[in-house]
Design brief:
The complex is a heterodimer of chains A (349) and B (92). Chain A is an alpha+beta fold. Chain A has 3 domains: 1-69, no CATH class; 85-170, Beta Polymerase, domain 2, CATH 3.30.460; 173-195 and 204-349, no CATH class. Chain A is 56% helix and 7% strand. In chain A, the strands form 2 sheets. Chain A has a 4-stranded mixed β-sheet. Chain A has a two-stranded antiparallel sheet with strand order 5-6. In chain A, helix 8 (205-221) packs antiparallel against helix 9 (227-239) and helix 11 (257-271) crosses helix 12. The longest helix of chain A is centred in the first third of the chain and has 31 residues, at 74-104. Chain A is globular, with a radius of gyration of 20 Å. The two termini of chain A are 38 Å apart. Chain B is built from 3 helices and 5 strands, in the order E-E-E-E-H-H-H-E. Chain B has helices at residues 38-47, 55-66, 70-86, and strands at residues 2-3, 9-14, 17-23, 31-36, 90-91. Chain B has one domain (2-91). In chain B, helix 2 crosses helix 3 (70-86). Classes of the chains: A alpha+beta (349), B alpha+beta (92). Chain A binds chain B through residues 52, 55-56, 58-60, 66-69, 71, 74-75, 78-79, 81-83, 86, and chain B through 10, 12-17, 19, 21, 29-31, 33, 35.
Chain lengths: 349, 92
């Protein structure tokens, strides 16, 4: 079957799983190989859990309309989903252990993205998390930093805790343009932090929205972005309780309105996010065209562009960035310029 | 009789399909997966929640849930228990 048809089925299942409700599906006859291709794409985009939920919701009705995985593919897929559940449980346990350890030393970690975003889904255990990201305030970061591990180019540290990858960050947001980074820092201080759904300290909804937004942009400007991160943004935009007008003002302050219009256009058209969750005018021709390019990037890249990645390091990132330059300059010209400056200085990896 | 290693058994439903996942003895981080029908899934859900049971208790659960007659319930339960025993999900 044509790749575009399989892509439509994948997106229909993702939409059903993301919003926990049936969606319209194209009428197609899928072979076992087609289903294998759909599951492989879902896996590469780390949205297996959403597709699993989508399959439950889109099961054939009495009239036979719906989608059903061939019986021979069920055991392996059930196993893959069970692994995600197990990993989520391990990560939550590890996060609690990390918090207890740091708080015992008088430090105040803040959980970023990952687990705190998973909590926004109806089935948090099915949202795959790659690692645990922790932020520490400036005065605490040196005390939290491991002594035996070298800092990465951007100042963060990568370590393992109870077999789970952990990253310690000196900044909440991924913003390269210095004037905006300073403004962002003021916003973070103004908004503060809050106890998240797991009882662990995390960003307030307003900051979470800016964080998810700028994190996606950073990856779009570099290696590329995956479907799961786009789903996170759509889910957060709907599930979080935040002041939308203020969010729009913050985006304007950070020079991110045009980019956000494209991001929202993508989320509405391809992920079924309700337009009421948008803060920008996202239906103009330019946003639509750029969102189409974003879709191509998502389909090409897989999870965070990792599937397309051959090697790593600042030079590789720079090469990936340069290949996206035209697109990047249309999305967020200032941030694109400063990202290049950072890459040349070797500050990004 | 009782469900073998019931703490490590997970029941899952996706669409019209029901499955039992049990930690594999042969492969690390893998589960043995058994597919089952809705009736068997209902019985497994209740059976794994109790310490022990017998075929009469399972039949009573079926009658209560589906309103079927005793003979049919007994027959179904006997068949299901036979399959579970065969794959090692049930022990006396």
């Amino acid at each position: 079957m044509a790749a575009s048809n399989l892509q439509n089925i994948l997106f229909a299942l993702v939409r059903a799983g993301l919003w926990e409700r049936p969606v319209e599906i194209p009428t197609v006859d899928l072979s076992v190989q087609d289903w294998k291709d759909i599951l492989a794409a879902a896996h590469s985009q780390t949205v297996d859990g959403l597709v699993w939920r989508g399959l439950d919701i889109m099961a054939p009705s009495a009239t036979g309309e719906g989608l059903e995985l061939p019986a021979q593919l069920l055991p392996a897929f059930a196993n893959a989903v069970a692994s995600i559940e197990d990993r989520s449980a391990r990560m939550e346990k590890a996060a609690r252990g990390l918090f207890a350890g740091y708080e015992g030393k008088g430090l105040h970690p803040v959980l970023l993205k990952g687990l705190s975003v998973a909590a926004l889904y109806d089935h948090p255990e099915l949202r795959e998390s790659g690692d645990i990201d922790l932020y520490f305030p400036q005065d605490e970061f040196p005390k939290a930093a491991p002594k035996t591990v070298k800092a990465k180019a951007d100042g963060s540290y990568a370590l393992q805790f109870e077999g789970v990858p952990v990253e310690l960050h000196p900044n909440v947001l991924d913003i390269e343009r210095p004037s905006c980074a300073r403004k962002a820092s003021v916003l973070i201080d103004k908004y503060g932090f809050v106890a998240g759904p797991q009882g662990l300290r995390t960003t307030v909804p307003q900051t979470t929205m800016i964080l998810l937004n700028t994190h996606i942009l950073k990856h779009v400007l570099g290696y590329g972005i995956g479907l799961r991160q786009m789903c996170d943004y759509a889910r957060a935009a709907v599930a979080l309780n935040y002041d939308r007008e203020q969010y729009r003002c913050d985006l304007s302050t950070l020079g991110l309105l045009k980019w956000t219009a494209v991001l929202e256009n993508f989320c509405v058209r391809f992920l079924g996010m309700p337009e009421s969750a948008c803060v920008c005018c996202s239906s103009d021709f330019d946003s639509e065209k750029l969102a189409d390019s974003l879709l191509k990037m998502v389909l090409k890249g897989g999870n965070f562009g990792l599937d397309a990645r051959k090697g790593s390091g600042p030079l590789r990132t720079l090469a990936a960035f340069l290949s996206n330059l035209g697109f990047s300059l249309r999305l967020a010209p200032s941030e694109a310029f400063w990202t290049i400056v950072s890459l040349v200085k070797g500050r990004l990896s | 009789m009782k469900i073998t290693d019931r703490e490590n058994i997970r029941l899952r439903k996706v669409g019209r399909n029901y499955m039992i996942l049990r930690e594999s003895k042969d492969a690390v981080n893998m589960n043995d997966v058994y597919t089952l029908n809705e009736t068997a899934a209902f019985l497994m859900e209740r059976a794994k929640a109790v310490e022990s049971f017998d075929e009469a208790i399972l039949a009573a659960w079926l009658i209560e849930e589906y309103g079927i007659d005793q003979t049919l319930a007994d027959t179904d339960v006997h068949a299901i228990c036979g399959v579970w025993r065969e794959v090692g999900l049930l022990e006396d």
